[in-house]
Design goal:
Strands 1, 2, 3, 4, 5, 6, 7, 8, 9, 10 and 13 form an 11-stranded mixed beta sheet that branches. By secondary structure, the protein is of the alpha/beta class. Helix 14 links the parallel strand 9 and strand 10. It is 44% helix and 18% strand. It is globular and about 70 Å long. The chain has one domain: Anaerobic Ribonucleotide-triphosphate Reductase Large Chain, CATH 3.20.70.
C-alpha cells in the first residue's frame, strides 16, 4: 500500500520535476518476413508491425490516464533491416539495391504514421566485423532514406569488445553522416542516425533501438526518465557528504524505476505481449531543471564541464544503476545517464560559457551510459574528422566493454558560435568546434582494429 506522503511525493515529481515514462517501445521480430520479392517483403513487414503494435498508442494512453503518469513517446523497434534485406536484393546492382532499401524505409515510415507512433527504429546493420552486400546497401541508402522519411531511425554497430573496430565501416559512416547532413533540412537526418560500439539488443531509446536476434517475437521495453526528480533530491542535500548524496540518488532511482516497471507491465499485459526490460537511463529534456548538467552542478560543480565533472557523473551513473536495479525485475538497454548536448539546457549553457568541449564530453563518456550525443559541429568539418571522432568513441567502448555511441550533426552553412533549432525533445544545438588537424591518413588505412586482450574470456 502507498501512504499519503508517497502519493503527494509522486504528484510533485510529475507536476514539478518532469517525471515521466520517456518511451514505451515494442520490439518486433521481422525474420519471418524475409522474401526474395521486395514487394512481398514490404507487405510482410507492414502487416507484422500492424499486427503486433497497431494498438500501442491507444493502450499506452489508456494506462497513462489510469495512473496519471505521462508516457511521452510510443515507439517500435524491429529486427535490423540489414539482416533481412539480403534475399530481396541479392541479384541487383548496388544502386538498385540501395533503392530497394529506401523502399523498405518508406514502408517503415508509412506503418509508423498509420499506427500513429512517434518513431520506428531498426533501419540498422551490425557490421563490427564485416559487411554483407545487403548491409552495405543499407548503409549507403541512409542519406536518401532520411530524405524520404520522417519517423525512421537508423543505427549502425561498427565495433564490439569481441570483434574490434571495423575501420572501413567507421570511415564510411563518417561519409554517410556528412551526406545525410546535406539531404535533410538543418541536417535533421543526422539526429536520427547513431553509430554504436557494443549496441544493446533491447534498447527502447531512439535513434539506437533495434530488436535483437536473441529476442522473442515481440516484447515491450520501457525507458523511464527523471533528471528533474534527481536534481530536486540533490538540491535538498546542501552540505551533506558525498556518501549521503549517493544513497539519496539510489533511493530516488528506486522510486522512478518502480513506477516504470508498473506502467510497463500494465501496457504489456493489455497488449498481450511479454514485458521485457526497464532502461534505467536518466534522459534529459530541454525543459528547465530537467537536466543532467544541472544535477552535476547541484552536486557541487560551478558549471558542468569543469574539473570534477567526470567524477560527479561517475557517481551519478553508478547510484542510478544501483537504485534502479533493486526496483526492476529485468534491467537492460543503456541504463545510466544520457549527455545529449542539444537536449539538455544545462549542457547548452555550459557550452556557451566555454566550460564544456567535445574533448571533455569524450572523457565523460567513459563513465556514462552512452557517448557523444546530439553534438552539432561546423558543416565544413571533413568526413574523415567525423570518422575519427567515431573511431575514438568506439575505442572507449571496445576497451571498457561498454556501450558507446556517436550522434554528431555537421550542420551545413553553420560554424562555431551559431545555433540550430530543432524544437521538441531534440532542443537547440550550439555549434561546437572540432580539432583543426587532419585524421585523414589514419582513416584511409582501413581494415579492422583487433579486439583487445580482455576480449579473450573463453
Amino acid at each position: 500500500m502507498f501512504n499519503s506522503a508517497e502519493i503527494i511525493e509522486t504528484i510533485t515529481m510529475i507536476e514539478s520535476e518532469h517525471l515521466d515514462i520517456r518511451a514505451t517501445t515494442i520490439g518486433i521480430n521481422l525474420k519471418d518476413c524475409i522474401s526474395e520479392d521486395i514487394d512481398k517483403l514490404n507487405e510482410n513487414i507492414y502487416n507484422k508491425i500492424v499486427d503486433k503494435a497497431g494498438t500501442l498508442v491507444e493502450t499506452a494512453e489508456n494506462v497513462s490516464k489510469k495512473y496519471g503518469i505521462p508516457i511521452v513517446t510510443k515507439r517500435v523497434s524491429v529486427t535490423p533491416i540489414g539482416s533481412i534485406i539480403g534475399s530481396a536484393i541479392k541479384n541487383l546492382e548496388h544502386e538498385d539495391a540501395i533503392n530497394c532499401c529506401v523502399e523498405v524505409g518508406k514502408t517503415l515510415d508509412k506503418v509508423a504514421k498509420d499506427i500513429n507512433i512517434d518513431f520506428i527504429g531498426g533501419y540498422s546493420a551490425l557490421v563490427q566485423k564485416g559487411m554483407t552486400k545487403g548491409e552495405l546497401a543499407l548503409m549507403d541508402s541512409i542519406p536518401l532514406m532520411m530524405k524520404e522519411t520522417n519517423t525512421v531511425c537508423s543505427s549502425i554497430n561498427v565495433a564490439s569488445t569481441k570483434a574490434g573496430i571495423n575501420l572501413d565501416a567507421v570511415k564510411r559512416m563518417g561519409e554517410i553522416i556528412k551526406e545525410t547532413a546535406t539531404t535533410t533540412k538543418d541536417a535533421l537526418g543526422c539526429a536520427k542516425l547513431v553509430v554504436f560500439a557494443n549496441a544493446p539488443e533491447d534498447n527502447p531509446f531512439m535513434a539506437g533501438a533495434f530488436h535483437g536476434s536473441g529476442e522473442g517475437d515481440a516484447v515491450l521495453n520501457v525507458g523511464v526518465s527523471g533528471p528533474g526528480v534527481v536534481r530536486a533530491t540533490v538540491a535538498r542535500l546542501d552540505n551533506k557528504d558525498i556518501g549521503t548524496v549517493c544513497n539519496e540518488i539510489k533511493k530516488t532511482a528506486y522510486k522512478i524505476t518502480r513506477m516504470g516497471e508498473l506502467i510497463g507491465r500494465e501496457v504489456a499485459n493489455d497488449l498481450n505481449i511479454p514485458f521485457g526490460i526497464v532502461d534505467l537511463s536518466l534522459a534529459p529534456t530541454p525543459a528547465p531543471g530537467d537536466s543532467i548538467a544541472n544535477i552535476l552542478e547541484e552536486i557541487g560543480l560551478e558549471r558542468c564541464g569543469t574539473h570534477g565533472t567526470t567524477a560527479a557523473l561517475a557517481l551519478l551513473n553508478d547510484a542510478v544503476k544501483k537504485g534502479g536495479a533493486m526496483a526492476a525485475s529485468y534491467v537492460g538497454g543503456l541504463s545510466g545517464s544520457f549527455i545529449p548536448v542539444s537536449e539538455d539546457a544545462g549542457m547548452i549553457r555550459a557550452v556557451n560559457d566555454g566550460a564544456l568541449s567535445i574533448d571533455k564530453l569524450e572523457a565523460m563518456t567513459c563513465v556514462c551510459s552512452v557517448g557523444l550525443d546530439m553534438i552539432a559541429i561546423p558543416g565544413k568539418t571533413p568526413a574523415s574528422t567525423i570518422s575519427a571522432i567515431i573511431a575514438d568513441e568506439m575505442a572507449i567502448g571496445m576497451i571498457n566493454k561498454k556501450t558507446t555511441a556517436v550522434r554528431v550533426i555537421p550542420v551545413p552553412n553553420k560554424d562555431v558560435g551559431d545555433f540550430v533549432e530543432y524544437g521538441g525533445l531534440l532542443g537547440t544545438a550550439p555549434i561546437m568546434p572540432v580539432n583543426k588537424y587532419s585524421s585523414e591518413k589514419f582513416m584511409n588505412r582501413g581494415g579492422r582494429i583487433p579486439a583487445p586482450i580482455q576480449s579473450m574470456l573463453n
